[in-house]
Amino acid sequence: MASPHISVPSHAVGLVHVKVRHTSRFTIVGNHLAQHRALSLIAIGLAVYLQSLPEGASVGIKSIASRFPESEMRVARAMRELETYGYLGRTRERLPDGRIVPRTTSYNFPEAEPEAVRETVREVVRDVVREAVRETPAPPPAPEPQPEPATAPEPVPVPAQEPEPEPDTEPEPEPEPEPTQEAAPSPEPAPVPEPEPRPVQPTPLPSRHRPAADLLARLRLHDPRLLLSARDIERLAPGLTAWLDNGAHPDAALRTLSACLPEPLHNPAALVAHRLTVLLPPPLPAAPRRTPAPALDDWVDCDGCDRVFRAPEPGLCRDCRLDAASVPAA
What we know:
Blueprint: H1 31-34, H2 41-52, H3 61-67, H4 72-84, E1 88-94, E2 100-106, H5 114-135, H6 210-217, H7 219-222, H8 230-245, H9 250-257, H10 268-278, E3 299-301, E4 308-310, H11 318-326
Antiparallel strand pairs: 1-2, 3-4
Helix pairs in contact: 2-4, 6-8, 8-10
């Protein structure tokens, strides 16, 4: 009889799990999501990916499609599936500055409340800590120190004291110490008042850059996100002055700098500095030189028929010259 193969698993067919205990960077996913009967595999994978992201991550359709090989249409369809079954919520909120931004909420359980989820996590952690404390064996008590037996101290012989002889004369009184004058405490110095902080005043711009600085300050009228500080305007004004020197119209410069802003906009000053450098228009070509028109002759009277015509000097008009040329010479 042939000997059995130890390396062959006990189950010849079916799924076999090889599990490793995770200690960091893992996400807990419920079977109600992983084995959902109605969701597509793309929607289940998208839900797991969203639950693994940290708070505040960008989860727009374009950003997710750039991360995975699926198209934007398939990502949008998967998001609609998750919204239908309560694993995803998408709303729009208005910020204090008036902007409307999208907000996406990922639920690890359909339509779970955030506070209830946090309380459930606290209870799970509390139960795990209790189980760990219950399973940890208590250390054995330390043995109490045995007191040493007390021994009686040996008597120390005291030498006999001889009686002191009585003095024949009374002892002289000791001189009393002279009272010393205590040093008067030095007066504490008066506290010096700290100077009040003064606001930092921006360096006055040259008059040449003042129109560019005014245009940069008006950018926030086109979009509130383009709010620049006084220091940023002072730094960016020379770049916009180059635009104006090259013939750019102020309204065209404002439209170019405020068009197609990214979402979200973290550093408006850096964006404006980049566009001022990259989108600098070329200077206008020089206008072609025009040839001056020839000067016109003055009006003169014809010597033959008194007709008025233009000529550099008085004489006959064209008809009189033709008539004179057609008459044969006598």
